[in-house]
Specification:
The protein is α/β, with parallel strands linked by helices. The protein contains 5 helices and 7 strands; from the N terminus they run H-E-H-E-E-E-E-H-E-H-E-H. InterPro entries: CoA-bd (IPR003781), NAD(P)-bd_dom_sf (IPR036291).
Length: 152
């Protein structure tokens, strides 16, 4: 088994079809940044993407108002999608588990691996995805829009 995560395609498909609200940590307004492209892609797929970036708080990204931290989100969130260096992930996961009501999934983007954060998330009952990108997984798995699939 690779270091990626413990989830198979049906697990990833379930996560992506059941998720509705995503907190995107490290959201950038710069179009050349991966977090900007992925956030826009997810919003276009029908997800509500709440951007999290203290330097952008109050501004609009992905059709939503950016918040400074996960603590500023006052609605249930299904997934936290993390665009931070691997060594910076643990405090993000700790905050997410403490402050996000309804959190089901912790998603670490491509090249982001933190086994301690993953173990903490799993211990709290969350699915944990590492070193993957939902903007790659959604078309690969045939997911057209939130809640819709074209492949069986």
């Amino acid at each position: 088994m690779s270091h990626i995560d413990r989830l198979n395609d049906p697990d990833i498909k379930r996560i992506l079809t059941e998720t509705r609200v995503i907190a995107l940590v490290g959201a950038s307004p710069r179009p050349e940044r991966a977090s900007h492209r992925v956030g826009n892609f997810l919003a276009a797929q029908g997800y509500k993407v709440i951007p999290v970036n203290p330097g952008q708080a109050g501004k609009t990204l992905f059709g939503q108002t950016c918040v400074a931290s996960l603590r500023d989100i006052d609605e249930p969130v299904d997934m936290v999608d993390i665009f931070r260096k691997s060594e910076d992930v643990l405090p993000v996961v700790e905050d997410a588990l403490e402050h996000l009501r309804g959190l089901k999934t912790i998603w670490m983007q491509l090249d982001i691996i933190n086994d301690k954060a993953a173990a903490l998330g799993r211990a709290q009952g969350a699915d944990v995805v590492m070193d993957r990108c939902p903007a790659i997984e959604i078309p690969r798995l045939g997911i057209d829009k939130v809640g819709e699939t074209t492949l069986v």
